[in-house]
From TrEMBL:
Compartments, record wording: Membrane
Protein origin, superkingdom: Eukaryota
Annotated protein name in UniProt: TMEM205-like domain-containing protein
Parts forming coiled coils: none
Length: 209
């Protein structure tokens, strides 16, 4: 099934869901707008949080554990820009929808905190899209070229890199530079995930299951 077919299938299921929530159809214009904003906010938040959970704690770890290191790095270099762009777009949508539902002037203190959490997630992801990820990918490619000249990089894990760095001051310096920028990128990602996790408690308190 192609991407377009999968997307249309998902949209069809989303549209069909209205049939099982008939109260939405009986709402007035403003009520429908608010219901649509709540749906958009929930879908955008769930996408951002779910993607963050998978990439940060499952997908990336599994790939690093089983793929040759340069192959893993090249894949991450293509995946992470798309990942952070997705999370940024979803965070921006969540911010806009939440701000529409809870205007700042009339929002409670708790609601203002929640908007702050969402803005924190957006800011962290934009920092990755615009600054940290491009720098990380560029540094990674330089290190790959250096490692190929040293005859390493096709192994799984960092063992050969660590051993070779003991004999190569240039590789050791490159490792430090890469570790610093990659650490900043990872920190921004974790702060974003944590901010969304904190917002999840607010959303769960609003559910009446």
């Amino acid at each position: 099934m192609g991407w377009a077919a999968r997307f249309l299938t998902a949209v069809s299921f989303l549209a069909a869901g209205v049939l099982f929530a008939p109260d939405v159809l009986r709402l007035s214009g403003d009520g429908r707008a608010a219901a649509a904003a709540r749906l958009v906010h929930l879908l955008a938040f769930a996408t951002a949080w779910g993607a963050g959970l998978w990439v940060t704690f499952i997908g990336g770890i599994v790939m690093f554990k089983y793929l040759p290191r340069h192959q893993f790095g090249s894949l991450q270099g293509k995946m992470f820009p798309a990942y952070f762009m997705l999370i940024s777009v979803c965070s921006a949508i969540s911010v806009a929808a939440f701000a529409y539902l809870h205007p700042w002037k009339t929002a409670s203190t708790i609601e203002r905190y929640q908007l702050g959490f969402l803005l924190s997630a957006l800011g962290c992801n934009l920092s990755n899209v615009l600054v940290f990820t491009p720098m990380t990918v560029e540094m990674m490619m330089k290190r790959h070229r250096m490692e190929k000249d040293l005859g390493i990089g096709t192994e799984v894990g960092y063992s050969k890199n660590a051993e070779t760095a003991k004999r190569s001051p240039a590789l050791a310096a490159m490792n430090r530079k890469f570790g610093m920028i990659h650490g900043l990128s990872s920190l921004a990602n974790i702060i974003s995930f944590g901010s969304l996790a904190m917002h999840s408690w607010y959303l769960s308190s609003k559910l009446d299951l």
